[in-house]
Specification:
Elements (H helix, E strand, L loop, with lengths): L8 E3 L8 H7 L9 H18 L5 E5 L2 H12 L5 E5 L3 H12 L3 E5 L9 H9 L6 E7 L1 E2 L4 E2 L2 H10 L5 E5 L18 E5 L10 E6 L1 H9 L10 H7 L10 H17 L1 H21 L3 E2 L11 E5 L6 H12 L1 E3 L10 E5 L6 H17 L8 H9 L6
Parallel strand pairs: 1-13, 3-4, 3-5, 5-8, 8-9
Antiparallel strand pairs: 2-10, 6-7, 9-10, 11-12, 12-14
The structure holds pyridoxal-5'-phosphate (PLP).
Length: 391
């Protein structure tokens, strides 16, 4: 690789750009995780993270990638042989299915075409047909990071309620938390899982599990054999500001800073910023003559946009060209859309000029890739960002 001056553009939909403030916070001496100074930090971040999930219940923090939170959600409330309903929205729902199956869980998948969010009506229909209550949980990925589509979490709660079914409701917010409106308590979610390296603007390494009273109750008498992923010891020790084993102390310094930054901006402003950058990006994609993988306008992701390349083009060759020429990383196509799409991340620590730079890099890359008509995308995005575009 040749030398690149200036900043690398990390425009994959996670890990995201880590703000200097967060990096500086992490760059502090590690302290005794059982000492008084830590207790203050522990109580602070454990209270702060609840405001991000919008819950008054415990949020459990594991030193792990988001996948660890998936596993913790399942092993604390389900047993081998239990049935769960998984909504196929893309690659990440497929990975969650595989993880559940490896644990011996019987996963029934509501198939999807990877171009929209989970369908509340189909969930309701399936739950209503399950009069015996065989389905123990419904699992949904809020923001499907492989496709750029958002599932309607509140509407799906409504569908579960209308079917009067006791299934637990589990939601993956690994790429939506702190970027898209989310309300764990108000939307009646039993288990919400998340991770540090996307909307929370931290490096990878922390995963989160928010729980409902009912999820805690079920975990007290149910669940699978488990140790590292247990909730009970965490909840008990967290109440005193400490952890049952060594926490990722320096990442927790960063978490304290990122929570502060989110509240300084205001969560609603954070969500509006992401929505605006999503809209500007989609306008650029349309101007380039390309298609968004997501086809459902009320489920467009504010976090990332997944762009389809014309048949016969290799999206990864385009990504490589853009990386070599302009030092920008774009997201690769995952699973069954590998090579057919690239993903533009517009989440986390991000602003209008960073988006303008990102879209400029994509537009130049498309032209160099031989797509001579890929013009005008940056112009329409700038017009929209400047507030001069028609609605
Ligand atoms: C990134 C992501 C994951 C995987 O998280 P890891 O931290 O890589 O384990 C799972 N689900 C969604 C929706 C994601 O975006």
């Amino acid at each position: 690789m040749g030398f690149h001056s200036g900043r690398h553009f990390l425009q994959i939909p996670g890990p995201t750009n880590v703000p200097d403030r967060v990096l500086r916070a992490i760059n502090s001496p590690t302290i005794d995780h059982r000492g008084p100074e830590f207790v203050e930090l522990g109580l602070d971040i454990l209270a702060g993270i609840k405001t991000i999930f919008k819950t008054s219940n415990p949020v459990i923090i594991f030193p792990a990638s988001g996948t660890g939170a998936w596993e913790s959600a399942l092993v604390n409330v389900l047993q081998a042989g239990d049935k769960v309903l998984m909504c196929e929205t893309g690659h990440f729902s497929t990975l969650w299915t595989r993880l559940a199956e490896r644990l011996g869980i019987d996963v029934e998948v509501i198939a999807g075409d990877w171009r929209r969010g989970a369908d509340p009506d189909k969930i309701q229909e399936r739950l209503m047909a399950d009069a015996g209550g065989a389905i123990k949980a419904v699992c949904v990925v809020h923001n499907e990071t492989s496709t750029g589509s958002l599932s309607r979490i509140k509407d799906i709660r409504g569908a579960i309620d209308r079917s009067d079914h006791p299934a637990l409701y589990m939601v993956d917010t690994i790429s939506s938390l702190a970027s898209v409106d989310y309300r764990h308590d108000e939307w009646g979610v039993d288990i919400t899982v998340s991770g540090s390296q996307k909307g929370l603007m931290l490096p990878p390494g922390l995963s989160f599990v928010a729980v409902s009273d009912r999820a805690i109750q079920v975990s007290e008498t149910g669940g699978m054999p488990r140790s590292y992923w247990r909730w009970d010891e965490m909840i008990e020790q967290n109440a005193k500001g400490v952890f049952p084993y060594t926490p990722a102390t320096n990442l927790l310094y960063g978490l304290k800073e990122s929570i502060a930054m989110l509240h300084e901006e205001g969560l609603d402003n954070v969500f509006a910023r992401h929505a605006r950058h999503g809209e500007a990006t989609r306008r650029a994609v349309t101007a380039w003559g390309l298609d968004n993988l997501c086809v459902s306008p009320d489920e467009f992701s504010p976090v990332l946009t997944t762009v389809m390349v014309p048949d016969g083009s290799d999206a990864d060759a385009l990504r490589k060209l853009i990386l070599d020429k302009f030092d920008m990383s774009l997201g690769t196509g995952l699973g069954k859309v590998a090579g057919k799409v690239f993903r533009i991340g517009h989440l986390g620590h991000f602003n209008d000029l960073m988006l303008a730079g990102t879209l400029s890099g994509v537009e130049m890359g498309l032209r160099l890739f031989g797509m001579d008509n890929a013009k005008g995308g940056v112009d329409v995005a700038l017009e929209y960002l400047a507030g001069q575009a028609a609605a």
